[in-house]
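Class prep. Protein, please:
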Amino acid sequence: MNISILGAGSWGIALSELLATKGYQVRMWEFDAGEARMLSERREHPQKLPGIRIPESVLITNSVAASLEGAQYVICAVPAQVTRQAAKVLATSVPPAVCAAVKAWIIVSKGIECATLELLSDVLKDEVAGLSDDRIVILSGPSHAEEVSRNIPTTVVAASTNNDLAVAIQNEFSTETFRIYTNNDTVGVQLCASVKNVIALAAGICDGLGFGDNTKGALLTRGMVEMARLGTRMGADQATFAGLAGFGDLITTCISRHSRNRRMGEFIGSGMTLKEALTHMTMVAEGVETTKSVYELARKHGIEMPISTEVYRTLFEGKPARQAVRDLMLRQVRPEVY
């Protein structure tokens, strides 16, 4: 099995280790030539995933064409907001016949493109000639790279409109510590993966403000309401939001010490501006840009998403975090509606 991984961040590295250990031929593309050389020589990224050694069998390259040579599966692990740029580089560097021979394009990035409000599956279809939904799989769930790379039991979903392809990924990627379920709701799984990062920013803000368990429990529950509202309006299955990609990933991202988005929110809640908080982050917190996308999608579809809206106002309009929480608490009282 030949597998190409686009992106040598923490998740790309974790997956390269998991798949190489299964005996697959793995090639990993890093767009930065200096980073690619460092990873090839050190076989470890000291900032993104310290202590995890990249197997010698994994080819790390700055050439996207070399990474796709003979690839049967392509894993897209670049940050959401540069997915289109990476796909454009791929489309101009790789012969169409090579792309056409890829059996599955597997998206593990989490976000919604700000410029177009498109899901990442649509971004790929825009840029990769001939790519259709039945060759795309979304791999998502509560799965921090820091834990997957250390063989801590993890369970995710492989979502595709092509059930046979989802089952193939399930069978070929599963290990004794990495369990995969299948799902056919690609829209819902992608929205879960994206919007939960916005709620995780809110969870971090609450942590930074010094709030407690009562607040976090309410936030996760009402945050899920917002996720499901947007998802069902956009054609997703509401049941998806109760599963691993939904509540499973939401809980993990909102409480984990590994969560970049929760950590970013904590910086904001402690009084930092967005600019100041970004300087403290060594890796991308996808929820920051996704907050813009979610805010615009809520407006586009006429959906009430008060938590997401207050996160947007706090990040991008300078609204004090404590005032945002107060405004949420003082909204018109009403029956609980899911």
